[in-house]
Amino acid sequence: MQQFQVPQFINIEDQIVGPLTLKQFLYLLGGGAFVIVTYSFLPFFLFLLVGLPVATLCSLLAFFKYNEQPFSKIIFSAINYYLKPRLYIWKNIPPPAHKQGEVVKKIDAASVPTLTESKLSDLAWSLDIKEKTKR
After folding, report:
1. Over 60: is that where the pLDDT of 135 sits?
2. Mode of pairing for the β-strands spanning 65-66 and 20-21
3. Cα three-residue angle 23-36-57, rounded to 5 degrees
4. SS3 content of the chain, % helix, strand, coil (to 5)
5. CB proximity list for 50: less than 8 A, separation 6 or greater
6. Which among 58, 29, 34, 59 is positioned nearest to 47, based on CA atoms?
7. CB 3.0-4.6 Å disulfide test: which of 14, 45, 71, 87 passes with 64?
8. What is the DSSP secondary-structure string of 42-60?
9. Contacts 24+ apart (CB under 8 A), 18-23
């Protein structure tokens, strides 16, 4: 009988560049390139307004995890939450209150079908026969 080696730790990403995974490296590379471009082309005040938030976002995307979930998944879930409609599985709606002046409509007894004793016994007998014949 052949033996096969079962892979271990398949949910951990491979470290490609030093201690960084490929995603972390690309986030930091893109953020660093954007910061360098903004630093070289914009005045220092605008660089602080634009470059630092982008650098912070890229470092959060690369390293921050909340409840073992990466920050990119948290952002994606937040965007979906705000853009998609909510689905209420159960929403309790209280019955409408009747005012004192309103008359509640009553159902006439004539409109409700009634079962006679013979119809009821016929139905019970037919169900009993069907149950016994299935066995």
Report:
1. no
2. unpaired
3. 45
4. 55, 5, 40
5. 38, 42
6. 34
7. 71
8. S-HHHHHHHHHHHHHHHHH
9. 20/62, 23/62
Q: Three-state DSSP class for 69?
A: strand
Q: Which amino acid is residue 84, in one-letter code?
A: K
Task: Kindly state whether residue 93 falls inside one of the protein's structural domains.
Answer: no
Handedness of CA 72, 76, 82, 86 (dihedral sign): negative
CA angle, 129 as apex, 125 and 131 as ends, to 5°? Answer: 115
Question: Per the structure, how many domains does the chain have?
Answer: 1
Which token pair is 40? 């070289």
Structure tokens given for 44: 């220092």
Q: What is the pLDDT of residues 65-117, one digit of tens each?
A: 999 899 999 999 999 999 988 877 777 787 777 666 666 676 666 665 666 77
Question: pTM of the entire structure?
Answer: 0.56
Calpha distance 7→20 (Å, rounded): 21
